Structure formats: structure tokens, C-alpha cells
Amino acid sequence: MERSPGHLALNPAQRQSPPLRWRVIGQYLPLAALALAAFLIVRNVTGDDGTTSSLATVGANHSEVLAANIAFFEDRVIETKDSLSYNKLTNFYLQRVREAGDVSDVRRAELSATKSLEAAPGDYAGLVNMALVRIAQHDFAAAATLATSAHEVIPSRPDALAILGDAQMALGKYDEATDNYRIYLEKAPGFAAFSRQATLAEIRGNFPLAEQFWRAAVDAERTDAPENSAWARVQLGNLLTTANRLSEAKVEFETALRVYPAYNFAQAGLAQVAAAEGDDARATELYTKATARVPLPQFIIALGDVYQRAGKSADAQRQFALVGAFDQLFEANGIRNDLTLIAFALDHGGDLNLALERARLAYAERPSLAATDLYAWALYRAGRLDDAAKKSAEALRLGTKDPTFLFHSGMIELARGNSATARLLLQQAFDLNPKFSVQHAAELKTALQSLKGTK
Amino acid sequence: MRLRKLSIVLAASAIGVAALGAIPALGADHKDAPLTKAAAQSDINDLYIFKGESAAGYTAIITVNPLTSPADTGSLQLDPNTVYELKADTNGDAVPDVSYKLTVSGNGPIQDVTVRRATGPDAITNGIAGEVIMQGKTSAGAGVTTITDSTGRKLYVGPRDDPFFFDLAGFQAGLKFTGVDTFKGTNVTAIVFEVPSVPTQQLGFWATTSKKDNLGNWVQLDRMARPAINTVFVPAEMKDAFNNNTPDRDLAIYKNTFIASLKSLGAGPDLASVLLPDILTVDLSKPVKYLNGRAPADDVIDISLQAITGNATIGDGVNANDRPFSATFPYLAAPNTASGAPGAPNTGSSLTSEDGNGVSWTLPAALIVAASLMAAAALVQRRRIGDEV
């Protein structure tokens, strides 16, 4: 599927009044690509050799430092009760959610952000922090409202627009998100802007641009914020894995692990590569490592899938049994409608009616492409094929080259008896990555073979 | 609300990516990207100009990286992409005549540091210019690496206890002070720079940080002179532009804005040309104490509150820093450590509305601060010499 032209360019209203310097040279290139080029020229970046010699690394005591930071400010706020200390604390909690995966920190962050806004009502940073908390809780509508309020407090500061864009991405408002990300890129070209542009490019199915932006993000903070750089490198690795460029992906994950030893997302990335290569033993080992320290549901599920494929059904069931606990855990910490858990219920024999209702709710609350695709898949499982087809087309409306989306769409069309369309979609998924999923790759192949010779 | 410049620490908190587009697995819901750290490194908290050990010169301190916990102090550093400047106006025209431009290279707790001295047009620009006068290393931990040159200039760059002291929560609660020092036990990165002699005793100072934009042009991110000017008098939507501006244009661009702010606070318009240009002035031939310059020990909060009320006992209840200052270079206390005893609680006398000194404690905090600054500025004006800007 080709991407629609100009989707990274400006909308007509904005095209009329870009800053002068952009107007002069920016007529022929999408702005995002232009900014990237300018950045690369300024920074004299010629490429990323991936050697560790030039890489700053995350210290071995990283998590202890984070814990000490949290302890310090937890202690301080009892006495100081000021917004700045609460803001620091909120940010450290959110960082620990990201790194250690303990979702009870989301609730702590929420309380801390609440206290900050009590100390300084309407304060820009307090609003921004609360918006970040709402995003972590998947309450994207509330996040958008908070980010908009923050933007109204200090319109010149771009951060609120980036977070507004994040919320809009989840709400399926991609044009609005694109506009806000563009402003953010202009005002704050750097790691956070590049990673958002990369995500936009992924959504639009433009892998080459996504790859460039991920590499720019990796480079932007490779020396002064190695954790950030490692995170972006894992995203790049994931992109390469999706594109079935497994050996390149492996290099990125391995480099990320040198930068950030025992980084669970990098371990999981390597596990996914091993699984795609059919090395179940290695995949099992790596997923076990990735889930040992930080038990994230998506990697527990992936480990179970590998066990299942390897014929170790009891081991698989043991992993799958763990996933149910996350439903309660997430709910207890205000995290709504997690797509990973809904997908698990749909694909691993959960309560279908409940899963369908949750998928519908997720779609109603925040119709991102991923939520839309998931709802389509739930409708398919429930046998509502026409509705499923409609939603699936909606999920693919931007030309996203996600083999899972395409697989879902193809299976839906197959069930509807539209062999030609099904074959086209399944072939696209297969061409992108025949090993896209431990659970579904064989199913994709079988379905395609059954369609051989059909028109 | 804040009396000094803490705006960018706030901005730094905001950079989180929640990237959807979960590839390759459908399962990944959204991703939270790390925060970016560079902003705090360019965020100027405070500027101090005072008499240190050098009888014939002055000492300047610029602090960045606000509200750093002891645990994070080991990773404090300056931003290699930022130019840190101390700009000095020697003839009262609000245009820098001399600029000391500090840059670092490398990353980590010990960085290579270079100071250039720029004059004339080079002093005005934000970019790297001027003659290299000092080179050396930044300091880590409690260590003090003093960089000197042949003329007797001294430089220290490294982690120190934050010299600022203030009950921020009390301020935020509408001046219900409890004497708690918000900044107790926290560290900053301090740039301590000493000049042994000056050609003229009346000087005006401000500090700036600048970075290259994506087209390679230097852009000023932040500037700092007297505490609270931007915070109190500049509307939210203009704050960043004010930080980008230069003092010589302050009157032309912001005079009407300040008059409007003053008017909304019930004050006359005349003070606008006192508050602007935003420069920390000092007459070194007189005792240097805020409002004439600013020494680390000066209780700028209380001085400001007292200036407006005329009540010499009014204040936020935090009357001194949690750690004592040294009489010798680099003056600021060593950084707080995780294991070190963080000093006795700083609980100065708390002030309440029952004082009955004719002060309405229910006044909006910004109004009090604004008024205090007007008074402070008026004092400065009386002291300023050659002030025909």
C-alpha cells in the first residue's frame, strides 16, 4: 500500500506561513526530512558505526540511583510540599515505570502530580506532568485536555504540544498529531522530536524515513543520555525486525545492551530475532532474562508463545497464567484498556465476550490504529465479519505496513469469502515479514497456501 | 510561581514520548520514551555578584541544574552544546562590553572547560568568540579543581550545595511561610569565576546560555540577572521571548508590557524604566550586598519583602542557607551526599497574618513580589551611577 502523498508535509493553512528560513529552502522537501537533513549537517553526523568506543553507557548502579532519587524526594516533599519537588518526584516515578515496569509507580506519580497542582494550581509543569500520568493510564482524552491547558499557559513552550500530539496519536487524530509534532520538531529539534517523527513515519508506512529518524534519535543523546539512546536503538531494532532485517536488528539490540547492560527491552528484541530465526531455545533463554527483572506482560506472552511452539505446553501455560494478574494490577493503578491484555485474551482463549467489550471500549475511548485493528480482530473472533472488515480497513487507512494489521485484515477477508483481497493482504504481510509472529506465522503461511491458484 | 529562574527544569520534565505505532508486535500498546536531560543543564537558576577574596575585583557565581538530589549529583555536568556567558556592561549602555564565555567538551562528571574573554562585537554575540584565557577540568564530588590564569583569575566548575534558600511552598500557599527551605539538601552545578581587578567600579551583569539551532545559528535560551523579573512582570506567553532578548532592547520591547503589569498590580508606570533593562548592577566601591550586587548569603526574599513593607522582621522564615558558606574560593558548600548528614532542619521563625503590621497576607503572592521588586529596583536606581541608559 502506498502512502498518501505529502502526509508529512504541512497542511494548507500552515503552508502559508512557515518561518522565513523554512519557506526559502523548504519548498521541495517534506519539512520533517528537511529538519533531519539540517540536523545531520549541523551535527556532522555521517552515520552510526555502532562501535562502543564512542558510546556512553548506563552505569551499573542506574536503578539504585533512581531508587535513591525517589527516596530523597519522597522524604523532602513531606517537609517542603512545593510544586518543584513534587514535579521531580513525579518524573522519577514515571522513569521507574518505564525502566522497572512496576505499575504501582503510576499511581504514585498520579498522587505526586496531584500534590504539585495543589501547591501551584494551573502551573505549566504540573499540568504537563499530569498529562504524562494520564497517558500512562491510557486516559488520552484527559491527557489531551491537560496538555492543551498547559499550552495555553505558556504557548511558546513546545513540550505541551508534543504531549498533546502523543495523546492525539492514541486518539487516532493523526493529522492533528502531525501538526503538533511538526511544531515541536521546529522548536526543539532533538531526541524527543526525532523519536516522535520516527513513530509518525512508521504509522504512515514510511520505513526509510522512520529508520533515519530513529538513527538521529540514537545519535542525539548517545553521549549525554545513554538510556535515551538505548531506548531509541531498541525502537530502531524493532523496526528492522518488522522489516525482517534480522541481522541488522540484532546489531542494534546488541549495541543497546552494551550501552545499557541487561536492558530488558533489548533482551526482548534479541529474543524476538531468535524466535524469528526459529531458534526457540535461544528465544526462551532471552525472554526469560527479559522477564526476570521486569515482568512485562507482552514479553511473558511472547515467552509463552515460544514455549507453545516448541511443544512445551505446560511451560507455556505457566506463563499465560501469569498474565491474568496484570488485569487486576493495571486496574488497581488506574490503567485502562491495555491493548496487550485484550489481544492476549483474544488470541489465547480468554473470555471472548469480555474481550470484545473491552476492545470496543478501547476503540471508543481512543481509536488509534492499533486499537482499531484490535477491535477489528475482536469482531472477527466474534464472527461479526462485515463490521470487522470495516474496522480493519480503518486501521489500514494510513498505509501502515504492520504485518499484524495486514494479517488480521487478510484473515477477515478470507472468512468473508473475498479470496482475491485476502490473498493480496496476506501476501503483503508475508512479503513484509513471513516470521512476523511466533503464534500466527504458520497460520499466515497455511492461509496463503490455501489461496494459491485462487483469483 | 518561583522567585528565581526555574522555568526550564519544568520544561525538562515534559519530554516524554508516548509513541504508539507499536511495531512489530500488535501487543505493544504505547511506549514511554525517556526524558531528556539537556534542558536543566542550560537552565540558569541564579546569578551572584559579590566581593570574594579579591579585594580589587569581584566574584561571579552562576548556578544551573536545579534541585538535584545527592544520588543524582554524580551525573551532574554541563551541556557540551551550550555556551555559558557572563556578560558585563562597563559603561551603563546595557550593551555587553566584555563577555566571559565558558564551554565544555566531553561528558561525565569531569569535563574539559574553556573560558574565552570576548570584547567589542564578540562580547555581544552568543556564539563562541574571544581569546582563550583559561583551560582546565571541572570538579567532581567534593573535590575542588581551581583553574587559574597568569592575571589571577580563578575558575571552579562543579557540584555544590545550592546556595539559594527559600520557602517555596509557603510562597505558593499565599505567603503562609513555615520556614522550610525547599532547596535544603539539594545540589546544583556552580560556575564560580573570580576576576582580580576591574577598570571601573560600576558594573552591570547578566548571565546567558545559548545553543545552536538546527540551522547552525546561536540562539539564546536563557538569561538571568536580578531574581524574579521575568517571573513577575512578563506574561506567560512572552517569557521565553524575554529570555531570548538582550537588555539593550528591553525598554523598547518590554516597557509597555511592564507598564501594563505594573498597572494591573496597582503601581505607577515609572518603575518600568527602573526594572528595565534587566541587569544585576553593582558598585564595587560600596558594600556589596543585595540590591547592590548579590552575595550568596543575602536573603533576597526577606530583603524584597522588607523593602515593600518597611517591616524589618518580615520574611519567609528561611534566613540562611542550610550549609554555611566559606570565606574562601569557591565559597559555596560542598555538595550534599547521600550518606552525609544534611544539617539541622532549617526552621526559622514563621510569620503569619497575625503580625498586624498593616500587611495583608492575603494579597496574591505575585503582587507582593512585584511590589517588593519595585521597591528593590527603586533602591538600585538611587545607587546606580552613570545610569543614563
Task: Note down, in words, how this protein is organized.
The complex is a heterodimer of chains A (455) and B (389). With 455 residues, chain A is an all-alpha fold. Chain A has helices at 12-15, 20-25, 31-43, 62-80, 83-100, 104-119, 124-136, 140-153, 159-170, 174-187, 191-203, 207-220, 226-242, 246-259, 264-276, 280-293, 297-309, 313-332, 339-347, 352-365, 369-381, 385-395, 403-415, 419-432, 441-451. In chain A, α7 runs antiparallel to α8, α16 (280-293) runs antiparallel to α17 and α21 (369-381) packs parallel to α23. By secondary structure, chain B is α+β, with helices and mostly antiparallel strands. Chain B contains eleven helices and 14 strands. Chain B has helices spanning 7-12, 38-41, 70-73, 121-124, 168-172, 229-233, 239-244, 250-264, 272-275, 300-309, 365-383; strands at 18-19, 31-32, 46-50, 58-68, 82-89, 98-105, 112-119, 131-137, 147-148, 154-161, 187-195, 202-212, 218-224, 280-283. In chain B, α10 crosses α11 (365-383). The longest helix of chain B has 19 residues, at 365-383. The radius of gyration of chain B is 21 Å and the shape is globular. Residues 5-29 and 340-389 of chain B have low confidence and may be disordered.
Write a concise keyword list for the protein shown above:
heterodimer; A: 455 residues; mainly alpha; 73% helix; 0% strand; globular; disordered N terminus; B: 389 residues; alpha+beta; 24% strand; disordered C terminus
Oligomer: heterodimer
Strand percentage of chain B lies at 15-25%
Number of helices of chain B: 11
Derived structural class of chain A: mainly alpha
* Count, helices of chain A: 25
What is the 3D shape of chain B?
globular
Percent strand of chain A equals under 5%
How many strand segments of chain A?
0
Secondary structure layout plus pairing:
The complex is a heterodimer of chains A (455) and B (389).
Chain A: H1 12-15, H2 20-25, H3 31-43, H4 62-80, H5 83-100, H6 104-119, H7 124-136, H8 140-153, H9 159-170, H10 174-187, H11 191-203, H12 207-220, H13 226-242, H14 246-259, H15 264-276, H16 280-293, H17 297-309, H18 313-332, H19 339-347, H20 352-365, H21 369-381, H22 385-395, H23 403-415, H24 419-432, H25 441-451
Chain B: H1 7-12, E1 18-19, E2 31-32, H2 38-41, E3 46-50, E4 58-68, H3 70-73, E5 82-89, E6 98-105, E7 112-119, H4 121-124, E8 131-137, E9 147-148, E10 154-161, H5 168-172, E11 187-195, E12 202-212, E13 218-224, H6 229-233, H7 239-244, H8 250-264, H9 272-275, E14 280-283, H10 300-309, H11 365-383
